[in-house]
Amino acid sequence: MSRNGIVALLSAAALALPLAATTATAHADTPAYDVLVFSKTTGFRHDSIPDGVAAIQKLGQEHGFHVDTTEDATVFNDTDLAKYQSVVFLSTTGDPLDQQAEKDAFQRYIEHGGGYVGIHAAADSGYTWSWYGGLVGAYFKDHPTPQQATVNVVGKGTAATRDLPNRWKRTDEWYNYRSNPRENVRVLATLDERTYDPVGYNGGSMGADHPIAWCHPYDGGRAFYTGMGHTKESYTDPLFLSHILGGIEMTAGAAKFNCDTEHTG
């Protein structure tokens, strides 16, 4: 090939590089999936909610998914929910969905394969809505004063536990639940009640088997719940943020959802 021919080929390749780079950037900037964070409360309101919202938005920026946030329950309709691969109930309390049409739309969303993430007081919601009780896994009962406790991470091999130590010491508000969800979920983490005072303000605790995080397939969809996340400090804790990120990924279909009860833990 002549010298002029080689120069022409090199020039053409150089001209092609910016276009290729631009195309690659465009693909990288396209969100892999969409998540809705819902934080409406009609009961107790946690002052950590803004911290949680900001933390999940940051996780989306860092890990390539889009995050919308709302406290407007009217978005729970078929058209709006269809945009999202997972819906996060961030410390919702009371009856955040108080219209039957909203409940019906969310139920259809889950039935059609949608994802649900419940954080902390999401279990303090929907007491008169038994379907939601099954989705979250267990209802809140009470809690002792926030304090340090040891979490036993027992559900290995999931995105929600991949970075967690076997025994995880952290400070939080530790929920007791009205029932033990183990029969219907895969338990990912339990509390060692020997490491803190577990007696809640109603005078009880859960005993030796005290689940605090779990996941399960439910009514056609995917559900993950963690009882942690009361404190503002939780939302700057890299281990807790990894736990939340994994739950979002699993329920959105971006990570393996190995959450059936056949798995140990």
UniProtKB/TrEMBL annotation:
Keywords: Signal. Residues 1-28 form the signal peptide. It holds the Pfam family ThuA. It comes from the Bacteria. Residues 35-249 form the ThuA-like domain. The keyword Signal applies. The keyword Signal applies. InterPro entries: Class_I_gatase-like (IPR029062), ThuA-like (IPR029010). PANTHER family: GALACTOSE-BINDING DOMAIN-LIKE SUPERFAMILY PROTEIN (PTHR40469:SF2), SECRETED GLYCOSYL HYDROLASE (PTHR40469). This is ThuA domain-containing protein. It comes from Streptomyces montanisoli.
